[in-house]
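Researcher: We plan to redesign the surface later, but first we want a full-length starting point. Tokens attached.
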């Protein structure tokens, strides 16, 4: 994973408590997912515990990063394309727990790209196949013209490739595609514009002074699936609106922000199946799952979903979602 630069740590140390020292894709994404979750995390500075999926994501990202460093060094030193991609993985202690399906599928993805570049570009295959940058860091000091009070934007792009290395990307000569590696499930299409594609759009805005970005994408090794989107003005406008809001918050720190009632508030009965801030938040969406035994008991007594919602102090949609999760 990327090492924090002096600039990032200096900003964190010099910013007053409750203020936003810099903009990042995770901050923008979290605000859009739920402003109140952003408030607890970045205004109040409350950090949730590291989870198993978080550790998995870190290990997989670091494995991919080291693989790319190794294979790039090999090609640059020998002038040859590799025959066995497995040989360029780091020590198996780093990835043995994730061999199936994550690492195996990633190697399939890499071999597929390599074969495509060999077929399309022959002796120039390595020029297109090798990434142009891995964990690339970029900063924008004042993209919205706020002057001395501007919150800088920053980010690390997982990988930047020539767009010509992907038949899925409609890109011209010299254009690139920014790829984010995701260790979770491929999101439903209706969630991508405010999720993976919005994150990619942020990177495109961040890196566009250096690169001509043709598309943004996410690679999901769980299912060996690459999803791609061209750039969208609507997503850029949304990002700008969010950052304008960050600027306003640095002028006047809010007491709370709007709550987005949704399944991400609580998606299961377990304490680890809820937003880390759920018990200190005014959200009621997770009440039927938090009190799953009562939800079941009321259902068995013949209570309607509306009556259960009244009893638990939540809305009808929260009960419907709980019924789905509890198999009622």
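Model: Full-length starting sequence:
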């Amino acid at each position: 994973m990327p090492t924090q630069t002096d600039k990032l740590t200096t900003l964190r140390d010099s910013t007053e408590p409750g203020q936003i020292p810099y903009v990042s894709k995770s901050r923008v994404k979290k605000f859009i997912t739920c402003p109140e979750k952003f408030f607890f995390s970045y205004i109040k500075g409350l950090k949730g515990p590291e989870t198993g999926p978080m550790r998995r994501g870190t290990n997989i990202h670091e494995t991919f990063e080291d693989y790319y460093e190794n294979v790039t060094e090999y090609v640059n030193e020998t002038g040859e394309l590799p025959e066995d991609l497995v040989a360029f993985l780091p020590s198996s202690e780093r990835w043995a727990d994730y061999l199936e399906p994550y690492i195996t599928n990633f190697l399939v993805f890499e071999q597929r790209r390599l074969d495509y570049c060999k077929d399309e570009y022959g002796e120039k295959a390595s020029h297109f196949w090798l990434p142009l940058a891995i964990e690339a860091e970029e900063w924008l000091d004042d993209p919205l013209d706020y002057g001395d009070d501007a919150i800088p934007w920053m980010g690390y792009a997982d990988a930047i490739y020539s767009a010509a290395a992907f038949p899925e990307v409609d890109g011209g000569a010299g254009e690139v595609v920014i790829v984010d590696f995701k260790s979770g499930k491929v999101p439903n299409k209706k969630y991508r514009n405010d999720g993976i594609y919005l994150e990619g759009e942020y990177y495109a805005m961040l890196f566009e002074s250096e690169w001509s970005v043709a598309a943004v994408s996410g690679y999901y090794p769980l299912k060996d699936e690459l999803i791609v989107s061209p750039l969208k003005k609507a997503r850029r406008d949304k990002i700008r609106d969010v950052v304008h809001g960050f600027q306003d918050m640095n002028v006047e720190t809010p007491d709370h922000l709007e709550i987005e009632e949704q399944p991400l508030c609580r998606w299961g009965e377990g304490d680890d199946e809820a937003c880390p801030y759920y018990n200190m938040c005014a959200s009621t969406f997770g009440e039927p799952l938090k009190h799953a035994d009562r939800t079941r008991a009321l259902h068995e007594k013949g209570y309607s979903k509306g009556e259960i919602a009244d009893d638990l102090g939540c809305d009808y949609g929260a009960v419907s979602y709980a019924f789905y999760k509890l198999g009622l």
